[in-house]
Amino acid sequence: MTKSTxxxxxxxxxxxxxxxxxxxxxxxxxxxxxxxxxxxAVLDQTPVDLILLDWMLPGISGAEWGRRLRKETxxxxxxxILLTARGEEEDKVRGFDVGVDDYMTKPFxxxxxxxxxxxxxxxxxxxxxxxxxxxxxxxxxAEQHRLSIGERQLEVSPTEFRLIQFFMTHPDKVYTRTQLLxxxxxxxxxxxxRTVDVHIRRLRKILAEYxxxxxxxxxxxxxxxxxxxx
Length: 230
Prior knowledge:
The protein is of the alpha/beta class and 230 residues long. Helix content is 40%, strand content 21%.
């Protein structure tokens, strides 16, 4: 099953290490950055499902970076949870004005943090209690390892299932072959980039049997995108 990916942006090393440990123990894939510049570099290379963003960062503040992200089309819908030591009601209002999805005041319990993350991911459509992802008439059930269009079940290999699962949890976004290899196959496995092309062709052939091959789109010079719209 493809894990949800969380980017932790926190300048205090001890807190950053604690958050990474908590997230990994909860089953998430986690990346870390110490400031907005490092965080942007991660985003440029790695698709993430949610950002844990500290308010007070060196250089550009977390609040300001979050505000900038919301102005970019690619990140307008990316869930953000703001972490801060500020506890006053006025500061919370300012946090939501930035466009964040939730707000947590330090100190907080790891259990509450994970619960908040899962709630935000569910609201954003990236996580469901039943392990199901639904896009249009397509439904993927991660727990039962089933992929269907309407009432018809598609027969796909385990690798193709992971690939379509990743695409369905990140619709309308373009990913390079390298990004897909990292997210679906894993960074510890060496596989040639053309392997991605092979599995894309297989998935398209399967989808074509149901008249849906247009869902997997090639973006020339960049990579691939999964979208319900042409």
